[in-house]
Backbone:
């Protein structure tokens, strides 16, 4: 039976505009294309894990608008258990206007909407189902009190956790995260979390070790096109990237984390799971969109086979 993963986190509707450049203040500029898609860091990670065959449940909140219902339908159609997806009356769903330039680089605004209503009481309401999970994933597009509460809940019940501290939140208190199993920041988030510089590999190591000294067992720093670095108390390992021509890098970090969760929970092998996750994320950026770009297990198997051919 597939291991069970829970995502306690956000969902958004991505409003994606392709741009040549950002308009200057006061300027009106024509953009070449627009597309809508399903996003939100929590939902993205849930969908990546589910498309790879994991048994996934999601604890999240949508608004009582058209985006809310289509988000629920989308989670369901990806095989995700939606028993703990709540609808907040009178609230809008989360939306993310996204701008993608010709190099595939993105700029994102988020309006959290109903994601702000995900509270510790929702974790209590989902507690019996959460206890059946092998791993819980969290991000920071929901209230911090809910993240701290979920981390404490998971620790109490012996469930491993992944925290992706994104988007960077200056008010995040690292002392409340000491029992998190894996913290997965990018360089900016690591700098904010530790108050230390992260401009060089040495600085990244030092900053990660300051988290390990606080009790976090494993830090995985995502480095964009440079890959990722796995740092534990006694080892530091580079996870090399696969070089591809990017079409759209939006959601690549979520593809990495969601697929890592799936690979890790099945095998408990850290480094091989991270290497596979790096391939999964690389494959995702060769296609436009966020969740739209995530491969199924069959598609991913074909992709990895093509690399060996
Ligand atoms: O990580 C990418 C995601 O960030 C997008 O899908 C957007 O919704 C924002 O949450």
Residues:
């Amino acid at each position: 039976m597939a291991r069970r993963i829970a995502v306690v986190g956000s969902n958004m509707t991505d409003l994606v505009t392709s741009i040549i450049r950002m308009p200057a203040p006061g300027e009106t500029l024509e953009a070449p294309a627009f597309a809508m898609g399903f996003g939100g860091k929590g939902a993205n990670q849930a969908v990546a894990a589910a498309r790879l065959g994991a048994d996934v449940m999601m604890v999240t909140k949508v608004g009582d608008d058209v985006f809310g219902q289509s988000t629920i339908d989308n989670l369901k159609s990806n095989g995700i258990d939606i028993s703990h997806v709540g609808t907040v009356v009178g609230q809008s769903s989360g939306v993310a206007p996204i701008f993608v330039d010709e190099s595939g680089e993105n700029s994102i605004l988020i309006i959290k909407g109903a994601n702000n209503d995900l509270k510790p009481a929702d974790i209590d309401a989902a507690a019996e189902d959460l206890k059946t999970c092998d791993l819980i994933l969290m991000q920071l597009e929901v209230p911090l009190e809910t993240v701290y509460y979920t981390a404490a809940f998971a620790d109490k019940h012996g469930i491993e956790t992944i925290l992706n501290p994104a988007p960077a939140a200056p008010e995040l208190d690292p002392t409340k995260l000491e029992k998190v199993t894996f913290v997965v920041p990018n360089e900016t988030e690591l700098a904010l979390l530790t108050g230390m510089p992260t401009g060089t590999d040495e600085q990244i190591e030092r900053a990660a070790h300051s988290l390990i000294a606080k009790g976090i067992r494993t830090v995985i720093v995502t480095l964009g096109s440079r890959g990722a670095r796995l740092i534990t108390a006694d080892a530091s390992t580079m996870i090399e990237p696969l070089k591809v021509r990017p079409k759209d890098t939006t959601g690549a970090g979520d593809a990495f984390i969601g697929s890592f969760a799936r690979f890790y929970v099945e095998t408990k092998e850290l480094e091989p799971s991270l290497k596979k996750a790096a391939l999964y994320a690389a494959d995702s950026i060769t296609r436009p969109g966020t969740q739209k770009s995530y491969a199924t297990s069959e598609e991913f198997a074909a992709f990895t086979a093509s690399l060996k051919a």
Summary: DSSP finds ten helices and 13 strands in the chain.
